[in-house]
Amino acid sequence: MYALGALTAQRTLFHTVDEPLPLDGGQSLARYTVAYQTWGQLNADRSNAILIFHALSGDSHVAGVHEDGRTGWWDFMVGPGLAFDTNRYFIICANVLGGCKGSTGPLSLNPATGRPYGTDFPVLTIHDMVRAQRPLLRLLGIEKLHAVKGASMGGMLALAFAQLYPEMTDRVIVMASAHANHAQAIAWNEIGRRAIMNDPLWRGGHYYDSALGPPKHGLGVARMIGHVTYISEGAMDRKFGRSLQSADKESFTFGIDYSVESYLAYQGSIFHQRFDANSYLYITRAIDYFDFGARTGGNLTSAFALTNARYAFFSYSADWLYSPERIKTMAHAAQAAGRKPSITGLKPRSAMMRSSSSRSRKRN
Predict the structure, then answer these.
(1) So where are the chain's domains?
(2) What is the pLDDT of residues 16-74, one digit of tens each?
(3) What is the pLDDT of residue 232?
(4) Residue 140 — pLDDT band, cuts 50, 70, 90?
(5) pLDDT band of 355, cuts 50, 70, 90
(6) Tell me, what's the pLDDT at 349?
């Protein structure tokens, strides 16, 4: 059996691509770096590779104990004998372009100035992020993947991969995601971005050399907003209800009275320790721009028909942002396109799955 810590001394590796990457927004990156990790071994014909895409606040450290002491964000799924069995499969996960865990992003040095890009970094799309990882697969000698998988934003990346490289995979696993953000999801993302940009410490996105530090309060509010959108009303009631945090009655102040307030305050207060505020802006913007059906005039069936993959869709009943109904919409379109998808509904326990930290999951 797999036990936490069985995958140890996991190192982050870096691949620098010295060829231009044209971006959907019209700009390009002349040179960029992708941070990644791998688990297991490639077989002789290099046919057992699975590419996992992370969610918004995640990174390449999926499983095991990292060299810096962190545990993986999906330890219960990736490892010997688990669903993504590292005795059978070669697992790859890369930090997305625009991220803040080693891949080129806003806090990387701009070669033109020698200072961090900040908001001089070009705005990205989900498809840009996927294209940035294609040279990494080439470096590893992989021309066809056993599967691609992603949850939340990762699911969008998996869909984009199947769309951009239909010849490279026969299997796509999409969990708690959508073919496009609905209007209210875009609205909440915008509110989160405004919370960051209205923090006086944001300084137009050029805060990296400030003695006052990053806009952690604005980022904290954005994180609190994000957590609320991940959980349905019913799940929130079941988890917290109206229980008070540490007293027998309300304090009649503007401090923390309720357990749900304490939970959100904690999540918001620690987020800046592991995530960059500008990366939050760039990544949520890329999520909002994603539309799997845009290239076929909004016709989802036609979009799925242009891919070659079999699809497995998973939804969580407690997920407000990417509800089971939205997963079913994709599954029905894939079915109509002849892709013979499977669809599975999962229990509410993972409505919090987008948290990329094992420690924060335990705190939940």
Answers:
(1) 182-289
(2) 999 999 999 999 999 999 999 999 999 999 999 999 999 999 999 999 988 778 889 99
(3) 81
(4) very high
(5) very low
(6) 42
Q: What are phi and psi of 80, to 5 degrees?
A: -60, 125
Q: The tokens of 138 are what?
A: 């080439």
Which of these CATH numbers, 2.40.50.140, 1.10.1740.110, 1.10.3720.10, 3.30.390.10, describes 182-289? 1.10.1740.110
Which pLDDT tens digit goes with each residue over 259-312?
A: 999 999 999 999 999 999 999 999 999 999 999 999 999 999 999 999 999 999
This prediction's pTM: 0.92
Side chain identity at 144, as an amino acid letter? K
**Cα 209–chain centre separation:** 27
